[in-house]
Every structure is written in C-alpha cells, then in structure tokens.
Amino acid sequence: MQLQLSVNDFKANMFLELLEIFKKDNLVEDYKIVNKYNEYENEIINDLKNLHHSIEEEGFKTNKFIEINDLK
Fold first, then answer.
1. Rounded to an integer, what is the distance from CA 44 to the centroid of its chain?
2. What is the mean pLDDT of residues 12-33?
3. pLDDT exceeds cutoff 80 at 4
4. Which end of the chain is more exposed for a tag (fewer CB within 10 A), N or C?
5. What is the residue-wise DSSP string for 2-71?
6. How many Å apart are CA 35 and CA 69, to the nearest integer?
7. What is the pLDDT of residue 71?
C-alpha cells in the first residue's frame, strides 16, 4: 500500500514517530520516504492529469463508475 501526504514539518515529524511505533508493534512492515517521483511515476501522473481532457474531447459522461481492487 502506498500513502502520499502533504503536511507541514511538525505534523510530518509526529507522523514519522507514529510510523516508528507501528513498525515496532509489527503493524507496519517497513516504510520509506520518497522526495520525488521516478520517470515512470511522472509519466503515469501526467497521463492521469490529462485523462479528463481525453474524456471531454472524445467521450461522454455516464452514471457508471469503475472500482479497482487489489492493486499491486
């Protein structure tokens, strides 16, 4: 599972301390702090940002939705 947060330094430090407690209690296996995205992740983010343009230009809105489970 991936969690992305944008918080100020004080809240970030509190959250990191909480993650360490979870890790000691085996509630969290491991975590890492990522300061930037790699090239592949940037490409996916750009594609997702542009998806709504594609839908507006070539598609039409419906009441249907897609639910995606078990992403790996």
1. 12
2. 85
3. no
4. C
5. -------HHHHHHHHHHHHHHHHTTS-------SS--HHHHHHHHHHHHHHHHHHHH----S--------
6. 27
7. 63
